[in-house]
Amino acid sequence: MSITIVLADDHPVVRLGLKALLEAEPDFELVGEAADGLEVAPLVERLRPNVLVLDLIMPGINGLDVTREVTRKWPETKVIILSMHATEGYVLDSLRNGASAYVLKGSHATDLVQAVREVAAGRRFLSPPLSERAVEVYARSAERATLDLYDTLTTREREVFHLAADGYSSADIASRLFVSPRTVETHRANLMRKLGLRTQTELVRYALRRGIVRLEE
Description:
Elements: E1 3-8, H1 12-23, E2 28-34, H2 37-47, E3 51-55, H3 63-73, E4 78-83, H4 88-96, E5 101-104, H5 109-120, E6 125-126, H6 132-144, H7 155-165, H8 170-177, H9 181-195, H10 200-210
Parallel strand pairs: 1-2, 1-3, 3-4, 4-5, 5-6
Helix pairs in contact: 2-3, 4-6, 7-9, 7-10, 8-9
């Protein structure tokens, strides 16, 4: 039986290489691709893959928030985060948001193949130099962590937040999310209130601190 996979990465060359790697495995079936974070959840909803291979930094909405939405709505789809960052904070955030694996972009190609097999079998995976012991430590830390105000945002508020932080106007956000500008303004006001932010500058600074604003990898 094939392991079905959706691949999400906004860099065409990187995505092409990952696609070739995954399709070389006889029991892997790549059923969908996405280049924008906003495309991923609808794709998962339609295709219901066994595994989602997801870039950490995505335009539209980042990999962490995509992971949170996917694992909450479709827990049968296991998420593998791809990242160039080997720091504890990124790993912890990924696990806290529901990821089953964290694979470094600089790791050996076989790590991603192994990660797909591990998460499809219901296990977790971290590519070297990360370790299983680190997984357990991070998971325990996540359980003890205090409430993060960002966690109180709804999925739509997170989408508006990401796009606003990227500099999109309310009209542009409305067009991308297929809602009215007035609805966008309502979501924006709510998220600003929840996060204790007052201005666009404060919103961007908050996004930078959390690594939400898109960084070139």
